[in-house]
Fold each of these.
Amino acid sequence: MMDADFFRRWMELAAAAVEREADRLTELDSAIGDADHGSNLQRGFAALVAALDKEETATPGAVLVLAGRQLISTVGGASGPLYGTLMRRAGKTLGDAAEVTPAQLAEALRAGVTAVAGLGGAKAGDKTMLDALEPAVDALGESFAAAAQAAERGALATVPMRARKGRASYLGERSVGHQDPGATSSALLIAALAEAEAA
Ligand code: ADP
Ligand code: MG
Ligand code: MG
């Protein structure tokens, strides 16, 4: 079972990973976007960690809803509303349970990913964050480590794809050969989940 402490640890580890990898995320976004993905997420996750320090979050659902709200209001760009929706929807799906099982988290994240697809209109193979998130939720039932591996593989698999959504899609064929920044940050987020479990 995972409690609110576990979820706060997950968000803190995700924030640390974003901090560590911000330059790389921005570099990836400079190749096929507008070179702001790292700084967008840095700003958002810093605000999220500050909000977790300040606000009371008694349940896993409350942690994720707060995370979603912070990401929506501070990240900006395309990824802010999308990551915010992922977290908020997952948090609302968990409801007000004090502890949740890995299966409940898998179900909640699946609802979040479905909401992201609904908001952004992307599907698998469009070279977006969904190419990491979908295989991750599929593998979550197995283990968090398996989900982290699936997300990492999914991010790498975006390299040969042609972007069909977001800024990168403006490049058409020239988007081929570059790893999607959002799929890369999604892999960091799922890796942080596996780290939180190991911690
Ligand atoms: P912006 O492109 O507005 O500057 P970011 O650089 O923060 O926003 O985020 C870009 C990432 O957002 C992309 O790499 C991609 O993974 C993701 N993204 C963009 N549009 C969509 C969409 N419609 N559906 C899912 N993910 C998307
Ligand atoms: Mg960008
Ligand atoms: Mg931008």
Amino acid sequence: AAERTLVLVKPDGVRRGLSGEVLRRIEAKGYTLAAVELKSATPELLAEHYAEHAGKPFYGPLVEFMLSGPILAVVAEGQGVIAGFRSLAGATNPTEAAPGTIRGDLARDWGLKVQQNLVHGSDSVESAEREIALWFPHL
Ligand code: CMP
């Protein structure tokens, strides 16, 4: 089966009208959209999605931010898509993200307690399959 990754356009991206721009970059790179759905997160879903960050200082603000509006959940597919999307997304810190990347071109530091960095992308095959099962239980 082709490799899959979970991409989230976070509430800041949806609010700013950048959902289409993120989808455009995924498709322009040559990856396939296997699922696209506008969702509202829940505290329970985020606790599972962000289990590895529980207890970190930015965890509370992160969950609050992710509950602040709708999220566009996307499954993207293609050879190397997990690393490929992370390279399209750029560095976690939007100030450090290179121009040409989604965060480098479209996100900035707002001086808030959490990085409002527009997108999430799974970081390994294991987390991709785990996260896809959480956000798209029917896939
Ligand atoms: P994401 O890839 O969704 O995974 C965890 C998120 O936590 C990350 O994107 C950022 O939004 C946020 N984050 C990660 N590290 C930090 C940090 N050091 N300070 C604030 N927010 C962070």
